[in-house]
Amino acid sequence: MIPGEPIFSKSTRVLHINQNNTLEVCRFAGEVIRRGELVAFPTETVYGLGADALNQQAVRNIFSAKERPADNPLIVHVSNTDEVKRVAKNTPKIAQVLMDAFWPGPLTLVLPRKNIVPDVTTGGLDTVAVRMPDHLAALELIREAGVPVAAPSANTSGKPSPTTAQHVMDDLGGRIDMIIDGGRVVIGVESTVIDVTGNIPVLLRPGGVGIEELQEIIGRIRVSTPEDVSIPRSPGVKYTHYSPEATVVLVTGDGVAGAIRKLAEEYEGKVGLLLCRETAETVGDMGEKIILGSRNDVESIARNLFYSLRLLDKQHVELIIADGSFSVEGVGLAAMNRLKKASSKLIHTG
């Protein structure tokens, strides 16, 4: 236990980790998880809001803190592949292949659920979503908790996912017991989710692992359609997600620069621009401008996306015009998916 730090408090505790204290902090936080409380923690993708996945009341507290719809399933986090057996009835061969290739990492597998996992964790489904994060603090926390950890993104439901501890505090301060501050995350968008319970794997949500990487390992993958969303088997597919306070307009196609410039000039309120580097060079000096990265540097674009949406909200812009001219290969597909979900309008230019 960390000297002088109580396990419970009415205020949200923020504990900063470094090379010397990570194990101590995670041991303390693991005790908090075991007691049925909520701990936000960093992963390689975004910050997660963790609770004992097998404790119904603790998981209900996640939904309450986030104001999350009850039928939106949670991802269960484990610290090693053997722990999958604790929550899943079986592990299909293709799931084992994917675990060997991508775990620890930003890939979530939807598997047949064991009854030990309560309905509140799975949204009442007969499946459970499982992943092993690629982050030292996350893995240490799960190990120290001694239980599988249910952890959606640590934000108010519908808002951009948090990529720093401050983002978590902005949304959930006073609602949760603890935040482990591990700095800004590396990937910046959530994990890829793939359902491996059927004959053909189904991509439910694009994320940190590109579909091209998956296809290299397992071949054919079906991409989910809007018809699959009526009963969500994955978080992030049914409800409004990733939206800042400002209205977002996404511009795609070959003529993005001209369209963005025209929209910004015509709008009478305060405008924020999320731009690829190439577009920024031709748009000129207008609005609150943030460069996400080069069009082909999709890792930078993904890492900066949620961070920049929140930054523009802090600057009180009323309209965010987003540049969608970047590549949708790899994690670029996830970045485009998140922008489309955040946007109230899509403009495609010729």
Automatic annotation (TrEMBL):
Principal place of residence: cytoplasm
Keywords, sorted A to Z: ATP-binding, Cytoplasm, Nucleotide-binding, Nucleotidyltransferase, Transferase, tRNA processing
GO cellular component: cytoplasm
Positions contributing to ATP binding: N72, T127, S153, S161, R205, Y242
Catalysed reaction, written as an equation: L-threonine + hydrogencarbonate + ATP = L-threonylcarbamoyladenylate + diphosphate + H2O
Family classification: Belongs to the SUA5 family.
Name listed for the protein in its UniProt record: Threonylcarbamoyl-AMP synthase
Source organism: Candidatus Argoarchaeum ethanivorans
